[in-house]
Automatic annotation (TrEMBL):
Pfam families: Exportin-T, Xpo1. tRNA nucleus export receptor which facilitates tRNA translocation across the nuclear pore complex. It is found in: Cytoplasm; Nucleus. One of its GO terms (cellular component) is nuclear pore. The lineage of its organism: Eukaryota, Viridiplantae, Streptophyta, Embryophyta, Tracheophyta. This is Exportin-T.
Length: 852
């Protein structure tokens, strides 16, 4: 034992181990493992019992107890004499336990005794609990040890909060049944005596005893605890100013377990009535926070009784009356959900259930809903300590934003329920918040953010027709919001939710056009596109584009005003010095949504032709001039993908693409052909970029997108330009590049049909030749390589190729494949087509090929 003791100390975190070398510690660990795993079971038992009896070191005691637990759990200790010796030794240790000994040793001893109880009680040794229950009056050491045994037994076997297998469930049932028949009344009397006698002498031990009681209440006769002696004692401990916090909390949790005891609804009403009679006013706001677990459990159970029995039943009505008595305490707890003593999830679950029972709320219930709305507001509000982080959105701010987003999900669901039950009260609540925020020069970021967020969420519940007509207080609140300028409007959070909320209610402005100027100023001044925060400015641009799409014709009279206030944004491309290698564009500087919005406005047919030409010229000419200047510089100095010039060219092409989105072929080529000429000239300029730098892949991708738009709006007039573009696009392609190229060809085929035959005849040989190199019959791999990104790109290319061939066949272009220049390449593609039709693992693709 001496050698083992030394090895245990070296292998642990004892002072001896700190001075030992790693090699010595490793050797000690190996020695301990051999002693535990290779010693005969009886020898290990005697070795460990000797260590427990003779060693003064806690680390040695723990190792001995852990080794015995492992041996018992693994069924290494099976001889009756060995088990009897172990049992008597452990019970002796438990009965002589000192409450001052290290908790980790008492817990391990309790765990080992709990395992013995599971294996032997009551069929082998029926006296475990009779031996362990401390005599009266309870002493700290034995009381603490007995409580820990019950807690370990609950954790490892009896509790239904953890998943149990069939054997564990059977063992648990056996132990509970035997305890109920033998000793539960005696144990319950011990809990009461321990709480009474030790609350002042040793409150920590009294708290542990009550914790053990709480765990057992769910499966014992509730009258053993819920009686005229124990319940008043628990209330007195819970509410007494002299009770230390852990003991008071343990008493509250015991009472909560009593309230949550499963039983028939009528019996539960009687139980709840007895709790209320034992301590009048425990649901008041003053005691609500201290008694939070109890008032929450009480409210949940009372609500459940009401649901089961109904208001017409006397007991059901009584349940609702008792619920009303504890609601102030529930609200007090709910408003302090950041307190460690409050289970915010349980409180929120109750509040949601309570609201769901309301159909036509009474005046009293409307008052309760107002309190719940305030709870929602408080719990959804950001902590001011994160204000700066959330403004710049650094790592800490992003984490807090993500955390709050998750935390708000259930609160938003509760808010929606209240909106449905009491829409007028909800609007009145939000109006009050908004008026308070607008009237104070010192209103906080957090208060404004949550006010706007709740109004935004209201817009998700209110129907479109109600928003359009300004039902209820919306006719007052929306105009109020449109003209709002909060003192903290520069903060990112406030600015973003303000813009989102305005956009949510934009249908109101569709029906109330007198507010269109107010809406425009929201987006055009420093609250929107000109906000000092780049992210806000970018988001404002996107939301402005959405607003233009919705309001479109109603904005025509304001076109000059809009362009005037967007002049600095639209002109930044021509003002930028792209020869400076240090120039870097943030994502907010691409201006794409602004260009789309302006394009949509210019394309409104209510705008005169002359005005359209004037505005479009002012947009397109500077951008085209910038392209020409950049191309000229790049030809002499080269153009790398990541260079400022390449990035600027990409963004200008994107801007041109966005401008074109507002136009269609009927307008551009029909009623306003001058516009078509302007876009055709713009296309010629963009194609010069492609001709000069066909191998800059990101730039090429943006140009392809622009070509798609030009095909749509210029119609047949674009065909002469197409061959120039296709000749540049078909060379030096990887699989993903060819997919983009073929999608463009497919659009041309579907748009122009037989009119595209000359283009197809010209480009098909190059397509087929290039694809024959990239693709083969085994492009679809069934092996591990089939999951690689490269293989997925090849598979996508093959699908796009077959769509290309199918479009040729279904748009009267099959004869092109039989021309002398194409026939040879058709012979290259046919074997792959036949192979796919017969063998491809993608069945829908096989069908497409057969149809083709």
């Amino acid at each position: 034992m001496d050698d083992l003791e030394k090895a245990i100390l070296l292998a642990s975190d004892s002072p001896a181990a700190a001075a030992a070398s790693p090699a010595v510690r490793a050797e000690a660990l190996a020695f301990c493992a051999r002693a535990r795993d290779e010693s005969p079971p009886s020898s290990l038992l005697h070795l460990c019992l000797s260590g427990l009896a003779s060693s003064p070191h806690a680390h040695v005691h723990f190792w001995c107890l852990q080794s015995l637990h492992d041996a018992l759990l693994r069924r290494r200790l099976v001889l009756p004499d060995d088990i009897a010796l172990l049992r008597s030794s452990l019970l002796s240790l438990a009965l002589s336990s000192n409450a001052a000994s290290p908790p980790f040793l008492r817990n391990k001893l309790a765990q080992l005794i709990a395992l013995l109880i599971r294996l032997e009680y009551p069929h082998v040794y029926p006296s475990y609990f009779l031996d362990l229950v401390p005599p009266s009056p309870p002493q700290p050491g034995p009381t603490d040890m007995f409580a820990r045994v019950l807690i370990s037994l609950d954790d490892d076997l009896l509790s239904q909060e953890y998943p149990r297998n069939a054997e564990e469930a059977s063992d648990a049932g056996r132990v509970k049944d035997a305890m109920r028949a033998q000793c539960v009344p005696q144990i319950a009397r011990h809990w009461q005596e321990a709480a009474l006698s030790l609350r002042a002498a040793d409150p920590a031990v009294a708290a542990v005893a009550l914790d053990a009681a709480r765990r057992c209440i769910s499966w014992i006769d509730v009258s053993l605890v819920a009686n005229d002696l124990f319940v008043p004692l628990l209330f007195d401990i819970a509410l007494s100013p002299g009770s230390v916090a852990p003991l008071a909390a343990a008493a509250v949790w015991c009472l909560s377990a009593v309230a949550a005891k499963r039983m028939d609804a009528r019996a539960k009403v009687a139980l709840l009535r007895s709790l209320l009679a034992a301590q009048q006013g425990f649901g008041s706001p003053d005691s609500g926070l201290k008694m939070a677990p109890l008032v929450t459990a009480y409210a949940v159970e009372a609500l459940e009784c009401y649901r089961k029995l109904g208001f017409s039943d006397p007991d059901g009505a009584a349940a609702m009356e008792m619920l009303e008595e504890v609601l102030p305490g529930v609200f007090a707890a709910a408003e302090s959900c950041d307190d460690d003593d409050v289970d915010s999830g349980s409180v929120l679950e109750f509040l949601s259930g309570y609201v769901s029972t309301m159909k036509a709320p009474s005046e009293k219930q409307l008052g309760h809903l107002g309190r719940i709305l305030e709870v929602v507001r408080v719990q959804m509000s950001y902590d001011p300590v994160y204000r700066g982080h959330l403004d710049v959105l650094d790592k800490i701010g992003k984490e807090e934003e993500d955390l709050m987003s998750e935390q708000r999900k259930d609160l938003v669901a509760l808010f929606r329920s209240i909106c449905r039950v009491a829409p007028s009260a909800t609007q009145l609540f939000i109006r009050g918040l908004l008026m308070t925020a607008l009237s104070s020069a010192e209103v906080s970021v957090e208060d404004v953010e949550i006010t706007l967020t709740l109004f935004y969420r209201l817009g998700e519940i209110v129907g479109e027709e109600e928003i359009r007509n300004g039902t209820g207080l919306l006719r007052e609140i929306v105009p109020l919001l449109l003209s709002a300028r909060f003192s903290c409007h520069t903060h990112r959070l406030v600015a973003l939710v303000y813009l989102e909320t305005i956009t949510r209610y934009i249908k109101f402005i569709q029906e109330n056009v007198q507010y269109v100027p107010h809406l425009l100023w929201v987006f055009l001044d420093e609250r929107g596109i000109h906000h000092q925060n780049a992210h806000v400015s970018r988001r404002a641009g996107y939301l402005f584009m959405r607003a233009v799409k919705l309001l479109k014709a109603k904005l025509a009279p304001y076109l000059d005003t809009i362009l005037q206030h967007l002049q600095d944004v639209l002109g930044q491309f021509t003002a930028m010095d792209w020869t400076n290698k240090d120039v870097k564009l943030s994502s907010s500087e691409d201006g794409s949504q602004i260009f789309e919005a302006v394009g949509l406005l210019i394309s409104i047919e209510e705008v005169s032709p002359d005005k359209q030409v004037q505005c479009l010229t002012a947009l397109l000419n500077p951008l085209c001039q910038q392209i020409e200047s950049l191309v000229m510089d790049a030809k002499t100095q080269g153009l790398e993908e990541s260079s400022p010039r390449a990035i600027s060219l990409q963004q200008i092409v994107v801007a041109l693409n966005m401008i074109s989105k507002g136009f269609n072929e009927r307008l551009v080529m029909g009623s306003r052909p001058t516009l078509g000429v302007m876009f055709k000239k713009t296309l010629d300029v963009v194609l010069q970029v492609l001709i000069s730098f066909p191998n800059v892949k990101p730039l090429r991708s943006k140009i392809i997108s622009f070509l798609h738009r030009m095909v749509e709006i210029l119609g047949i007039s674009v065909l002469p330009c197409i061959p120039i573009a296709l000749r540049q696009l078909v060379v030096d392609n990887e699989a993903k590049d060819m997919v983009e190229f073929l999608v463009l060809i497919n659009q041309i085929i579907c748009k122009f049909k037989s009119s595209a035959s000359a283009i197809l005849e010209d480009v098909f040989p190059a397509i087929a030749s290039h694809l024959s190199v990239i693709l083969s019959q085994d492009a679809f791999s069934n092996g591990p390589a089939g999951s690689t990104e490269e293989m997925r790109e090849l598979q996508e290319l093959q699908r796009t190729l077959y769509t290309f061939l199918y479009d040729i066949a279904t748009h009267d272009l099959s004869t092109v494949l039989l021309t002398p220049s194409c026939r040879h390449y058709l012979e290259t593609i046919m074997p792959l087509l036949l192979f796919t039709s017969c063998s491809h693992k993608d069945i829908p693709l096989r069908k497409v090929r057969v149809n083709g």
